[in-house]
Structures are given as C-alpha cells and as structure tokens.
Amino acid sequence: MFKKFLVASCLFVAVGCSTVPITGRRQLSLVSDAEINTLAAQQYREVIGQSKLSTNSTQTAMVRRVGQRIQQAVETYFRQQNAQDQLTGYAWEFNLIQDDAQQNAWAMPGGKTAVYTGILPITQDENGLAVVMAHEIAHAVAKHGSERMSQGLVQQLGGQALGAALSTNSATTQQVALQAFGVGSQLGMLRYGRNQESEADRLGLIFMAMAGYNPDGAVGFWQRMAARSNGASPPEFLSTHPSNETRINDIQSLLPEARKYYKAR
User: Which residues of 188-210 are buried (b: 16+ CB within 10 A; e: fewer)?
Assistant: First the structure.
C-alpha cells in the first residue's frame, strides 16, 4: 500500500523522487535541499530559543566534541563516495537541552542537532552518546526528514496546495516539519519507518566508527533502551520501527562492515 502511495504521489505532484545517498533507495522528495535546510534552520532556532540549554559545561562540551567528530566523519565519507555535493548548505550545530524527562535526540536537515539530558543516563559515556548522535545525523544526511515531510504535506494538503504552503511557510508546514524531524517527542528516536531506521543504523555505525568510536557499543545502548521500554513496545508488524530484538540482531549483523572503518583514537 505504501509503495503505491509513494509512486502515485511522485506522479501526482510532478516533482519526482530522489535517491537516498549511499544506499540508493528511492524516496519521495517535494522540497529542495535549499528549502528544507532553510526551514530546518528556522525551526531549530525557534526550538533552541524556547528551550533551556544545559549549563553543565562538561556534558555540553562532550556533546559538541562527539558531534564535531561525527561531522568530520560524515564529510570524509561523502567525499570518498564522490557525494560531497549532498552536504552543500550544511551549517552544523550541536546543543544539549536541559530536559531530564526527554530520553531523546534529533538532527535536522543541514546538520542542526540537539540532545536532551534525559538520554545521557542511557548513553552512559561518550561512546554511547556517539551511537545516538551518529544515528540521528545519519537520518539527516539520508534526507529522512525531507522524505517524511514530503509524505506529510501530501497527506495533509494534497498536491494542489503544496506550492502555496511551501512558499508561505504556513503553520501547517511548520508543524509537519517538526513532526518530520522528530522534535518534541519522547520517542523521537523511534519515529521513522523501518527502512529509514535500518539505513540510519547502518550509516550511523559507519560514521561513529570513522569518528573513532567503537561501533560495538551500539548493542549495549539499544539493550539499555529496550530495558527502559519495560516490554511496552507493540508487536513489530504493528510498529513503524523494528522491534528492539530485531534492531539489536540487525546491528550485530552490520558490525563487521562498521568495524572495517574503526580506528580507536
């Protein structure tokens, strides 16, 4: 059903589909990179302006250090793949938001990234934080936010209203964008679809390994996340993301590839 919707949407809006960098999966794309990066930067400024940033200098420095190392890994990886043009317009930024109730992190198109203090007890250390940030940044560079926003705009507005909504940056457009980027959700890290999660897991492991973080730490992190859910996750066939057990098994199968990129610093 979703595949039929995707094909029909591409034809209906006459904009076409784009290809996910690296993996080659086809995805719906109604918004240009320049438009989505500009919108994301605006939304990021608003979220950061309305949030309380952490005053813990040690934790804040760790978030920015991890982010910058993963940024360098992403830029190196895309350059090696002759795909550096996919990062045009990126203006990276990494912030730690003080909110112990939010076990969450997210990265917007263009490299704007936020981590909530509530997830730090689960990450436990810098390597665990790298698992989270590399995964979220992978969502951004794979254009999953743009893909989800495109789907949301089609569902809520229909093809005829898309041009007007994007040109006026309407309230509906902004709300769809925040939902697409996973902002403000307790389960923001789990909001993407199964294909998107699998892509982010694979690329995230590679990015963190290239940044000098041990990708094997991803298994422990997701095991801790699973323990926090207390068995509350729905059956996998009813869920938009892999079950905890499936994700951990999939990550274990991806580790041999990721380890090839790992050199401890």
Answer: bbbbbbebbbbbbbbbbbbbbbb
- Measuring CA to CA, how many Å separate 63 from each of 40, 131, 209, 220? 20, 12, 17, 19
* Residues 167-175: contacts with CB under 8 Å, at least 24 apart: 169/39, 169/42, 173/39, 174/39, 174/43
| Strand partners of residue 52 | none
Closest to 230 (Cα-Cα) out of 220, 215, 244 = 244
Q: Could you read off the pLDDT of 196-217 as tens digits, one per residue?
A: 888 999 999 999 999 999 999 9
The pair of three-digit structure tokens given for residue 178, joined into one six-digit string: 């925040």
CA dist 123 and 159 (Å) reads 42
Beta pairing partners, 17: 28
Q: What is the pTM of this model?
A: 0.79
**In the structure encoding, which two tokens stand for residue 13, read together?**
């809006």
Q: How far apart are CA 36 and CA 216, in angstroms?
A: 33
Q: What are the tokens at 241? A: 């993301």
Pick 80 or 159 by higher pLDDT.
Answer: 80
Task: Label residue 108 exposed, middle or buried (CB < 10 Å: 0-12, 13-18, 19+).
Answer: buried
Give dist(CA 210, CA 138) in Å, integer.
Answer: 13
In this structure, how many other beta carbons lie within 10 angstroms of the beta carbon of residue 163?
Answer: 13
